[in-house]
Write a structure and sequence with these properties.
136 residues; alpha+beta; 5-stranded antiparallel β-sheet; 3-stranded antiparallel β-sheet; 2 helices; 8 strands
């Protein structure tokens, strides 16, 4: 019983650490994605990164740089509120009923990139992916 309790405490502690962007060391961090009247509402943290894109896809497949790549249904430039901490954005475009995967990106404006011009996702850091279900 003591072994089980110790294991449960360790698993709980690890889960709570991985659930926070600071502990995971990963920015941008997509905190939530929710549908409202077909629009996508997201809350995210960018840290020192500049706003990049909101991407919604029908597949969770990602490229080598971590960006959603297949079945892109929505791709918009982010222009979130200028409040520090968690930023919010509502998509301009609406989505049909279905299951989607949502991701945001941030751009390191101070870094030098060796990307080819116009290469999708180049110079961007991509967030975790959230699942979204839009009801009809």
């Amino acid at each position: 019983m003591a072994r089980l309790s110790t294991f449960a405490l360790l698993a709980l502690a690890a889960g709570s650490l991985l659930g926070t962007p600071a502990a995971a060391g990963r920015l941008p961090y997509l905190a939530s994605a929710a549908p409202r009247n077909g629009h996508v509402l997201v809350a995210f943290s960018l840290g020192d990164l500049a706003p990049g894109e909101l991407v919604v896809a029908t597949s969770s497949r990602v490229s080598a740089n971590g960006a959603l790549t297949t079945g892109i249904e929505l791709d918009e430039a982010l222009k979130p509120s200028a409040t520090p901490g968690t930023a919010h954005w509502r998509s301009r475009k609406t989505l049909r009923r279905g299951r989607y995967f949502v991701q945001v990106s941030g751009i390191d404006t101070g870094g030098v990139t060796d990307c080819m011009p116009r290469q999708r996702g180049c110079g961007q850091d991509w967030s975790n992916i959230r699942r979204l279900v839009v009801q009809g």
